[in-house]
Amino acid sequence: MPTTTLAIIRQKVAKKLYAGRFPIVSVTTSDSDSTTLIIDTALSPAAQIEDFIETWIIIAEQATAVDSETNINEGGQFSATDTTLTVSDNTKFTVGDGIQFSATATPAGEICRVTVVDGGGADLTIVRGIQSTTATTHENADNVFIIGPAVQEIARVTDVAFDGSNSKLTVAPGFTASPVSGTDYEIHYKFYPQHIRDKINEILENLRRPIYLALTLVTDGDMESTGTSDWTAAATTGTAPTLAKSTTSGRVLHGRRALSITANSDATNSFARSASIDVSENRNVFVSADVYITAGDKAKITLRDVTNGADIETAESVATGFVHFEFTAVVPADCEDIQVWLESPVASDVTYWSSVQLLFTNRQVYDYPTALEWSEDFDRIFY
């Protein structure tokens, strides 16, 4: 199924609603050095103040933080409660700047806002833990980065100034940090952006797409559980395989995810073992499965007699791509429990199992898949 983001959907809706307007989606071309300004050369050609007054601005994407080329210079740790930050060069900052810290080239965690730049020293007065971040302790000499407002911050245009590359919109309320160059934003000329988002979500919540779910006695046989706790990883020799649920396109045939089994390089006969299923002897069972086999690898499915520790029936393939396994078998004498083993038999093999079905051939009533909640969720039943 095609994928997109809510921001892209909102922007497409905005372009339909405000067709003929310009700009609708744009990118700031300069640091604003103010929490209440948007600077963008794309604003200049419009040259009509009335086009922008009382429009809404929403931050569509937070620009990548930029290294200020200065560092924390506290002489020790900068505590989580301290609001006066000493840096090696405070001339790199202006009031309103958002700042973030890291010992590496990639900042993360707490974001602060500069409120005072000490003109005669090296100090910054800051507000701690803005943009839903938490104030934490930072190490001396950590790099200080400059970062802009957070995604989905919204403000309204109160004034406009056209001046070529310095064309700007004045907004209120101010953003949590001054917009920096490269900040993606949207102009909504009539509707409040959050209302558009709410309507999109309302539509998305009511969209339905058909999926095929396996009717099976195997717990999580339809692979709809997000985790792998219903499956036990094991190997005849070596390290047990890695189990995961994959949603990768081209690896899932039915439903929303597949069980991936990645064999380790030191292992043989790596497999995922299902929970045991109670049976009575001499009963006929139907077993099938759909699996994606990585090029050059092998897949195998085994119906296992747990009581007697023996294989009842197996099927295997070395074909590349999706393969369907299917067989019937008779439960042996004295067998009380069976399992299905899904296998990546050879070292380093990777297989993706979309579903596994186990049904009694003479049974007519089954519980429906737990992924279904309401009767209207059912469309058709196939056999």
TrEMBL record:
Protein name listed in UniProt: Ubiquitin-activating enzyme E1 FCCH domain-containing protein
Taxonomy of the source species: unclassified sequences, metagenomes, ecological metagenomes
